[in-house]
Amino acid sequence: MSNYTKISDLVTGTEGSAYITVNGSNRYFFELQKLDANIEFTVISKKLMGHRMKQHKVVGAEGKGTMTIYNVSPAALEVYNEFIKNGKVPPISIQTTNEDKASTIGRRVVVMRSVILAKVPVASLDDTSEDLSTTDTDFTFDDVDNLESYVLPENMR
């Protein structure tokens, strides 16, 4: 048994997929170019009487992310129109799968729930660009479920 990670077991960023669910309707998130999501702890620090070092305590957490989307889908704008016209934000969740068939570690599947996109594209024109039209947006999520996790590489099991 070897104690090193083989490069063939590292997951390539393009090997994966994403699905978005809006108002119970699930579909492939075809307009997604890039997604990065993290959970950040809320930490307080306090120096207690008689101690010279501050101590730290986790008191909460927040789901945050960024994504780049192609400006081709009416679905995101419909979410914001629902809020503008009716004052309601339909529930959104995003499920991502990271899976590289060349790797022996399997795949990771997570679902982020109660997703709120900070902005969505309404219109984008640029006569100086030959690039694909995209929008960068931040987002938040209130819950996450880890449906499937990576395993140890084959040579470490």
What do you see in this structure?
The protein has one helix at 75-86; strands spanning 16-22, 25-28, 32-46, 55-70, 92-99, 107-113, 116-117, 134-141, 143-148. It has a 5-stranded antiparallel sheet, with no helix packed on it. The protein has a 4-stranded antiparallel sheet with strand order 3-4-8-7, with no helix packed on it. The protein has 1 helix and 9 strands; from the N terminus they run ββββαβββββ. The chain has 157 residues and is mostly beta strands. Helices cover 8% and strands 46% of the residues. The model has no long low-confidence stretch (mean pLDDT 91). Strand 1 and strand 2 form a beta hairpin. The chain is globular, with a radius of gyration of 20 Å. The N and C termini lie close together (8 Å).
